[in-house]
Design goal:
By secondary structure, the chain is mostly helical. It has one domain. The chain is built from 6 helices and no strands. Helix 2 crosses helix 3 and helix 3 runs antiparallel to helix 4. The longest helix is centred in the middle third of the chain and has 28 residues. The mean pLDDT is 91.
């Protein structure tokens, strides 16, 4: 699996399409254990320049840096909330652009989790004598 260089990675974060040779890495990015953290990082990377400009403008124009910082922090939190809410759909849509069927990332993650949860359910059943 080839990883994109920093310039291509940044292009990918801003919604650009990577060359076909990175298709396996894009699938890994969408289905690995830290996929949600990667989706949140993507949102933060895209919005960070906007938040910095807003902080400077609010601080200079308003002159009240604590209020400007609080306003921008609230914007960051709201943006991250929207990112979490739409993460599955966003990642699935990203994979569709690389030729994967709709919902492929979610189905792949669920299949990986099913085996783990089956083991946990079996341990629970053995210990407590009930099925989950």
């Amino acid at each position: 699996m080839r990883r994109p260089n920093p310039a291509l990675w940044l292009w990918y974060q801003y919604g650009g399409r990577l060359p076909a040779r990175y298709r396996d890495w894009v699938l890994h990015d969408a289905t690995c254990r830290g996929w949600l953290a990667r989706a949140l990082l993507r949102t933060f990377v895209v919005l960070a320049p906007i938040f910095v400009v807003l902080l400077v403008l609010l601080g200079l124009v308003g002159g009240n840096w604590p209020v400007a910082l609080g306003s921008v922090l609230l914007g960051v939190l709201v943006s991250l909330r929207f990112a979490v809410t739409n993460a599955m759909e966003s990642v699935d849509a990203r994979l569709v652009r690389y030729g994967f069927p709709p919902g492929h990332a979610t189905a792949t993650r669920r299949a990986k989790d099913a085996a783990k949860h089956a083991d946990e359910a079996e341990r629970y059943r053995r210990k407590w004598g009930r099925s989950t």
